[in-house]
Amino acid sequence: xxxHPEDDWTRPIPRTPRGNGGRRDPRDDWHEPAYIxxxxxxxxxxxxxxxxxxxxxxxxxxxxxxxxxAADYGYTGHEFDDEQWVEQEYAEEPAGRSRSGAREVSxxxxxxxxxxxxxGPGGRPPRRRRKRYRLRRVLAVLLxxxxxxxxxxxxxxxxxxxxxxxxxxxxxxAARPADGAGSxxxxxxxxxxxxxxxxxxxxxxxxxxEGARADTMMLLHLPDSGEPILVSVPRDSYVEIPGQGSNKIxxxxxxxxxxxxVDTLEQSTGLRIDGxxxxxxxxxxxxVSTVGGVExxxxxxxxxxxxxxxxxxxxQRLEGAEALNYVRMRYSDPRGDLGRVERQREFxxxxxxxxxxxxxxxxxxxxxxxxxxTGSAMALGEDTSMWExxxxxxxxxxxxxxKGQSLTVPIGDANYSTHAGxxxxxxxxxxxxxxxxxxxxxxxxIEP
Length: 448
Hints:
Elements: H1 127-163, E1 165-167, E2 183-190, H2 198-204, E3 214-222, E4 229-232, E5 238-241, E6 245-248, H3 250-269, E7 275-279, H4 281-290, E8 294-298, E9 302-304, E10 309-311, E11 314-318, H5 320-328, H6 337-355, H7 358-361, H8 364-376, E12 378-381, H9 386-400, E13 405-408, E14 411-418, E15 421-426, H10 428-440
Parallel strand pairs: 1-12, 2-7, 4-13
Antiparallel strand pairs: 2-3, 3-4, 5-6, 7-12, 8-11, 9-10, 14-15
Helix pairs in contact: 1-8, 4-5, 4-8, 6-9
């Protein structure tokens, strides 16, 4: 587009005489440097004294918000038919600043000749751009913190997973039960003293028996939908051990280890075991010590001469030998093995609650310390995945929070005389009904 300096709106507005029909007068070009009026331009006899009368010297308001026309500048429409008038938006003078002190501003919002625009030398950047830059910086910092936290949690969980030992707990029996509703996990506490020194055995009053037996057994059932169910299996339960005849159920562990114990429970309950976890005496004490003990509230004093346990009535924190012997004691309990499995469930729930506090679960280094101490004290079945282990942990946490149900296999005779000594005989009809409900995902019809 050709450059026409005379079209620049910043030049002075030419005066338009009144009453001459808007015709252009040569005197309107007095301001242009290329036109200088001389004597030859004056009419004969010069201009009359009242020649300037009828001219409008008032400053005209420049158009805004629509396309400018020649009439806006005092010209007739036909005089500039070959020109193109472009709509401009004009910068307004800053509030509170006098017109005399205002800087000249171009149509693009910056002083003429300022190549750097609003961020030119000596100029302050616009407030909007500064806020946007600050927001981006804050978001970047938050993103880095989130990534660092997620990485720390992955490091903690990986450390815990790598600290857990593995055992073979898969039955060799080809006639294993079919998968049912939900998942079933076997939690076993053994009386293994393998990692305890002679002094530790004396301090913990564990005795010096060799080998290992299943001292505690619990079935954790996680339904497809709904709350978990924890079922205690008395260690003296009299059942059929595959290939070994009838005996106390803890003898299966002594004879064939975890695979035979899992096989025995599957054949006795009709439930397929999906995961296996065990912990020994030494590991139990280490886990309790790691969380700083477990608080238990006793309705009455507890005294057991065999384990030298002497606890007063009321709430108290148990750890070390006191915690171990509290869950093992049965000779001073009038309910024998049945009273012991109830204490074991209560203590395990309280222990899980201590381990699942926000201070432990949400702080990566604290989670790693507690988790690795726990992981090194237990063993998982070789076929138990990380996902299944996590589900077990969440299920036990729900039990610890009072959700779900905790119960014992229905008992028909708690002092049943057998060739293996006094045993616990299940109520066959009630036990079968309970296991059938778990297998099919039906509500339980027995009371805890």
